[in-house]
From TrEMBL:
Gene Ontology terms for molecular function: S-adenosylmethionine-dependent methyltransferase activity
Cross-referenced InterPro entries: Diverse_substrate_MTase (IPR051052), Methyltransf_11 (IPR013216), SAM-dependent_MTases_sf (IPR029063)
Highest taxon listed in the record's lineage: Bacteria
GO biological process: methylation
Protein name, UniProt field: Methyltransferase type 11 domain-containing protein
Keyword Nuclease belongs to the record: no
Alphabetical keyword list: Methyltransferase, Transferase
Assigned protein family: Belongs to the methyltransferase superfamily.
Residue intervals of the Methyltransferase type domain: 31-121
Amino acid sequence: MTVQNGNRWNHNIHYHPRILRAVPDGSRRALDVGCGEGMLARELRQAVPHVTAIDLDAPSINQARKYPDNVDYILGDFLTHPFEPASFDVIASVAALHHMDAATGLARMRDLLRPGGILAIVGLARSVMPNDLPRDLAGVVVGTFHRARKGHWEHPSPTVWPPPVTYPQMRALAAEILPGSRYRRHLLLRYSIVWRKPQG
């Protein structure tokens, strides 16, 4: 699955394949939450006929709309935009959940997903010191290696640092709000959550 996004690399793009592998066969409608300038949305569009992408940052949405990619870009607040409940086969989000209240965001994603649909998230959380120091140092070393080989693309979207929720808190929220979800902590200072909404 390839699109013309150039040879971009950063910690978020590194985990796009994890999102794309989670897309179920036969998916018709996907939502990209916090789409920025649309890189993931364009990748999703290669597998899903209708992709909607939403972000609060006007410059990012304006940049995304320059691509002839047949994605429906929305400038707005994901938490309040009037999407139809249970209307998406796939909801994806990369590095956006820490820009909102995490529990509210997860619940909103859950409610917009149709039964049997897939939610796939890659996010940032706050490390807990000193417990996370060895893992974080290893992540810095590996990230430096990747940047030396691939360069580093700096996205134009606003950043939030430090993330308000820790990794253990994020794991607990996922277990509470998305029962049965698969939470994984990744080396390059990210976590992922993949969840299939139960039928019925």
